[in-house]
Each structure stands twice: as C-alpha cells, then as structure tokens.
Amino acid sequence: MLLAHDHGAELIVAVGTHTSMVDFLDKGRSGMASTVVTRMKVGPILVDAKGVSRLYSSRVRKRDLLIMILAAIAALVVIALVSEPVRLVIRASWTDLTN
Length: 99
Fold this sequence. Notes:
- The protein is mainly α.
- The chain contains 6 helices and 2 strands, in the order αβααβααα.
- A two-stranded parallel sheet has the order 1-2.
C-alpha cells in the first residue's frame, strides 16, 4: 500500500485486509501498529473491496443487453458470410434438416 501511495496511486482497493479497530486490537498480534499507521497514511485513497461493490449497481439495463445480443448476432452473420468452412457447415446442417 505504501509503495502504491508513494508512486502516486489515485485509488487503492484493499481485499482481505483488516478493516476495523476491533480487527487490529482483538487479534493480539504484534506488528498491528504498523498496519494502523499505514492505513492512516493511505486512508484518503484507500477503499475496501466491499465498499467498491456497493458503489455500483449490478442491474443490467434491457437496452444494453439487447445491443450486446444484436452485436453478437451481427458478428456471427459476418463470420458466416466471410468464412467458407462455416458456410459449408451451415449448408450441410440445413441439408440434413430439410431431408
């Protein structure tokens, strides 16, 4: 965290780190003081991963989903038009279905 801070990071996302004073004091481990001081120094740019997930909604708009599906279909059509092996497979499949 200190290296990222010293090299000018605008945002540090922490995953699996200690987050509260209870975490720092309750464990009874040595070296927690340096962890507290580090978090105090990088505090303005430090965000826990749980906080990041709460910033963004996970809902997908129907319009965006439709655009993505149409783009995938368009890509498949272009591939079918350009690729001779794909056209052969489509013709063989169509022939099997119609017979």
